[in-house]
Amino acid sequence: MKMTDLMSLEDWEKLEKELHERFGLNAAASDAEGVRLTKYANWGNPLCPRIKGDPKGLSAICAVAGRHFNTTCQSSRSPLVEECDAGLVKIAVPVIKDGEYLGCVGGCGLLFEDSEVETFLVSKSLEIEESEAERLAADVTSISHDRADEIVLYLKDRLAQLGADAVN
Q1: How far is CA 112 from CA 146, 156, 168, in A?
Q2: From start to end of 62-158, where are the E strands?
Q3: pLDDT, tens digit, 9 for 90 and up, residues 112-127
Q4: Which end of the chain, N or C, is more open, meaning fewer C-beta atoms within 10 Å of its C-beta?
């Protein structure tokens, strides 16, 4: 079974757009191997496209977080809310059907209220001045831990509507 057995690519893209519009996430749905389902690009801040658009930033920050989240969601079968190495919140909810892990859905690009963007790491990864990383990070939206939990519950409810198994 695959993610597209639950919903078409077009509908996964609609969900990504909904997550972006509703919560400001850089939303994405990925298959069991961690490969994005759609090509929909959505950015909640100017920092993320700069990181992901640079091969050095992509490999040092985004790809590492993506692998970690996919592997952890697959093994734990539970939602995961953590910060990437850049200090940005990443939220992922596993998609499970009949006990089989199909992938995960969620997003990233927000900042916990009690945290800060790791501009030093970003500047070193991208080989830019830290002041440039700080400028890009200035517009990152912050959220509370409770709001992150709301996003997880919202995703769990949406997945349940698709007939996915309940996750912890």
Answers
A1: 10, 21, 22
A2: 80-83, 89-97, 100-112, 142-143
A3: 999 999 999 999 999 9
A4: C
